[in-house]
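[SOLVED] Predicted holo structure with flavin-adenine dinucleotide

Edit: marking solved, answer below. Original request kept for reference. I posted the sequence and ligand SMILES and asked for the 3D complex as structure tokens.
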Amino acid sequence: MRTAVGWEQHSVGVARLRESFAALPPGAPVRLAKRTSNLFRGRAGAGPGLDVSGLTGVIEVDGDVAEVQGMCTYEHLVEVTLRHGRIPLVVPQLRTITLGGAVTGLGIESTSFRNGLPHESVLEMDVLTGSGDVVTTKPGDALFDAFPNSYGSLGYASRLRIELERVPEYVALRHVRFDGADALAAAVSTIVEHRVWDGERVDGLDGVAFAPDELYLTLARWTDEPGPTSDYTGQEVFYRSLRRRTTDRLTVHDYLWRWDTDWFWCSAAFGAQHPVVRRLWPRRLRRSDVYWRLVALDRRWHVGDRLDRRAGRPQAERVVQDVEVPVDRLAEFLAWFDDEVGMRPVWLCPLALRRDDAERPWPTYPLTCGTTYVNVGFWGNVPVGPEAPSAPRNRAIEAKVDELGGHKSLYSEAFYARADFDRLYDGANLARVRAAHDPDGRMTDLFEKVVGGR
Ligand SMILES: Cc1cc2nc3c(=O)[nH]c(=O)nc-3n(C[C@H](O)[C@H](O)[C@H](O)COP(=O)(O)OP(=O)(O)OC[C@H]3O[C@@H](n4cnc5c(N)ncnc54)[C@H](O)[C@@H]3O)c2cc1C
């Protein structure tokens, strides 16, 4: 059972972090030495990294506030906060995403329609910058505001003070079917505005589009009412239940990790949803980090490409992306996506920024305050033929999302020209903040990380 580590142990972890920074060869780039990752693009060059092994826990929980170390996974964090009857305001779906990773890399989940993104419930954080200082920063500071979507290019968060919300033991679900994306988008707008659907409160909201005329919103309501609950860590697979059931009940714990067990639906690629394989696949290994390691092996040894070649199939392009489009352009985006990319299912997650000050949006990922967006997630391979290495579908998605007034997350591959990248992610502001906190350029610049694969 995990417990809070306390401040003394935190100081030891920070001292170890500082020592490892000081031990880096002069001028060497600064990198993390971290055991898990949910990044989907390649990273060049290993070299020595920062020792973050003492920064993986919860420091303390005090009512609706928690002090958390930067590399604490959400699985660990939630295990501790649930014992206090609380959870972070947004809990990304994958167990090994860390708090620091979600804040710098923009996590999202079904509470984002009312609680915004993970960085919007951070009250204060300590950041190890490229100058080797650990700086305490708050909302409104240039470093704090530029940090979300900076992917470690401005420094590494070692401690974050975050808000929590109370939760009961269970979640009641309704899976509501829509015959078209326009109707679903209209329902999203209504729920974001009123937080109610058909007279019932909505606490969590996400959805899946299986086909142009078969889309579902899953409406979650926190509840204390006792009763039977479903278990999707066994033989049943959560995403399939959306088409079979109109209502369901889960424990809060199981609701939070409902997508992790089968990495949304992506575990099918490893056979993990086949009844025979599933029975043999140990339950404790039905987790996104296990599938992630399998994907890493595939990428290393090009297993999929070899199989495609042997079977005479066209070369496939990997299209693993999450994009945000304004809710009133969702139907247009999905129709275009069907024509140009053709991948289903896709995950839908509505979000609206919590920050309501239009003068002070988050510059490195400048969504508009007061606008509802829908995050569209799609993760798979598209057969395109010999031009696959030049990533035509990924490039087309970047252009379309920009045309529709949306934004693309940067956890996966990106292909922007420098000028477009700087326009979309406020490169000028990033450069200013970097110059102030990292005058020798020890942290790799965001463009070089994301597009240059460094
Ligand atoms: C297939 C797929 C689906 C995804 N779906 C979702 C989703 O549905 N919801 C969601 O919320 N997210 C999703 N993500 C994205 C994920 O939240 C981000 O990639 C996040 O940054 C991963 O966090 P991590 O802790 O695993 O960090 P890592 O993968 O280890 O690192 C990610 C980046 O963050 C930097 N970083 C890590 N820790 C810190 C820190 N403490 N301070 C500063 N920088 C740091 C690293 O340098 C690196 O650039 C998905 C990713 C993938 C690959």
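OP edit: The longest strand covers residues 372-383. Thanks to everyone who chimed in.
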